[in-house]
UniProtKB/TrEMBL annotation:
Recorded GO MF terms: structural constituent of ribosome
Region (Disordered): 25-63
Gene Ontology cellular-component terms listed: mitochondrial large ribosomal subunit
Domain Large ribosomal subunit protein uL15/eL18: 92-172
Superkingdom of source: Eukaryota
Family: Belongs to the universal ribosomal protein uL15 family.
Gene Ontology biological-process annotations: translation
Name used for this protein in its record: Large ribosomal subunit protein uL15m
Length: 293
């Protein structure tokens, strides 16, 4: 092994290059070369400068400000459709269409009408998978509506309530959860599964006030307050309120579902056997108490 002497070290230092800015460089791959911009001068005008757009007929779209933040994005905006995909929707059904269903004998007015009856006509349908939570009965055709009915809807207006009660009818606004809606709009499909009828869930927090209001004819409202609101509405719209107590269809008009009930005449916990045409009822006291709660 060769030993370095002072003379050899001096010769080595004399021949080696000196450390300077000219021979300094980074490791390979440490610095990436910048890519050339989209425009002539490195992308400062993005191809829409005084030569680009005029000479090449490359006109800017409305609102484009050559790479800067557009004017309409510098200020806050009102989000009209915020959370629209999670809001409950109520497809409308007019009184004119309802009267047409009755005139065509697609609806039997001698029995209570609910969402299941409306969907069974084939003229109205909802899709719970699209956030549809029932029917919104609107007042279109209220002047020509003449039927006396007992109807259950999920949303309605004051003028619609007046049009129904003016003819001696009764209307109730009732909430159904998504699972109950699937069962209600297609009962046959549910009964074929051989499952017990579940309980209907109570309304969520943002809907409990609507369905507890007597003015909205909510199914959770006090019946005495509903009777008073019927009288107040008749005075407001100027018609004489018929007395349903003297009506021959009194039993049909006062028929209402329980807060946990989905179908008329069928209680939660019952199993409908379509093949044998029988109804199986729970006998266990704990099950009976569960479905009544």
């Amino acid at each position: 092994m060769t030993s370095f002497t002072n003379k050899n070290v001096l010769n080595l230092l004399r021949n080696l290059p000196r450390l300077s800015i000219s021979n300094l460089r980074n490791n390979d791959g440490a610095v990436k070369k910048n890519k050339r911009g989209r425009a002539q001068h490195g992308g400062d005008k993005h191809g829409h400068g005084n030569k680009g757009s005029k000479a090449r007929q490359n006109f800017m779209r409305p609102g484009y400000e050559t790479g800067n933040t557009p004017f309409y994005m510098k200020f806050p905006r009102e989000q009209y459709y915020k959370d629209h995909h999670v809001k409950r929707q109520y497809p409308p059904l007019s009184l004119a269409t309802l009267q047409q269903m009755i005139d065509m004998n697609r609806i039997d007015v001698t029995k209570p009408i609910d969402l299941s009856v409306l969907c069974n006509t084939g003229l109205y349908n909802i899709k719970p998978e699209d956030k549809h939570f029932g029917v919104n009965l609107i007042d279109e055709g209220a002047d020509n509506f003449k039927a006396k009915i007992n109807i259950e809807v999920q949303w309605t207006s004051e003028s619609t309530i007046a049009a129904i009660e003016r003819n001696g009818g009764v209307i109730t606004t009732s909430f159904f959860d998504v699972n109950s809606l699937f069962i209600l709009i297609n009962p046959k499909k549910f009964f074929q599964r051989g499952e017990a009828i579940p309980r209907r869930m109570i309304p969520p927090e943002d809907a409990i006030l609507y369905y507890s209001s007597a003015a909205n004819r909510g199914y959770l409202a006090d019946p005495e307050k509903i009777s008073w609101e019927r009288f107040v509405l008749a005075q407001k719209y100027g018609y004489k309120l018929p007395k349903i107590e003297d009506d021959p269809d009194y039993d049909m008009l006062i028929s209402r579902k329980d807060q946990r009930q989905i179908f008329y005449g069928l209680e939660p916990g019952w199993v409908v056997n379509l093949k044998d045409k029988v109804i199986l009822k729970p006998t266990d006291p704990q099950l009976q108490e569960f479905y009544r709660s």
